[in-house]
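Hi there. Long-time user, first ticket. I'm pasting a complex I've been working with (about 223 residues overall). I'd like to know whether the download I got is complete or cut off, because the file seemed smaller than I expected. Thanks.
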Amino acid sequence: GENVEQHPSTLSVQEGDSAVIKCTYSDSASNYFPWYKQELGKGPQLIIDIRSNVGEKKDQRIAVTLNKTAKHFSLHITETQPEDSAVYFCAARNTGNQFYFGTGTSLTVIP
Amino acid sequence: NAGVMQNPRHLVRRRGQEARLRCSPMKGHSHVYWYRQLPEEGLKFMVYLQKENIIDESGMPKERFSAEFPKEGPSILRIQQVVRGDSAAYFCASSRLEETQYFGPGTRLLVL
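Hi, the file is complete. Here it is re-exported in full:
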């Protein structure tokens, strides 16, 4: 089955700096890669996603890149703000429509 | 279009009681997933259901746990004879086939 690894587990950045979170996956047939943000006491919220036929996608301060050959994808947050502080999860969906999640990255943006 | 709804949001049970967690998917979504999350940990897959079918229950404990998604009504995750180790947040997510998965707010189960 699919195995998704996520790094780092914790990340602290100064407000205004960039944050990068990386994930690798094992199943080359996985075709869809969403990223979720989870704030304390809430459910995960989709923030951006990318499909396997695309290498990069951007939405304002958030971008995701996908390297299918290396089987890794990354989340980039630029100009970080305190409200970006949360736990971020990557995921990979296989051809059976099942989702596999990384272990999460706790991001702290220091004002 | 309402999002994924879960109830109750908080549930307290004594050891040995039953816990029933409900999930109403987004309108038009026929795929439901249940996940379990312990404090400061990731999301652990439990079960994947379509209407009236269990597609993958490889993440479900063999004993005491069951799930259903009937033709009408919400999906139910049922935990019989709860133990303290069942205390966790349980999240439901829904999707259309091969589309994005959206999460509900979760049910926080506390077993006393």
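A couple of notes from our side: The CA atoms of residues 86 and 111 of chain B lie 7 Å apart. The mean pLDDT of chain B is 93.
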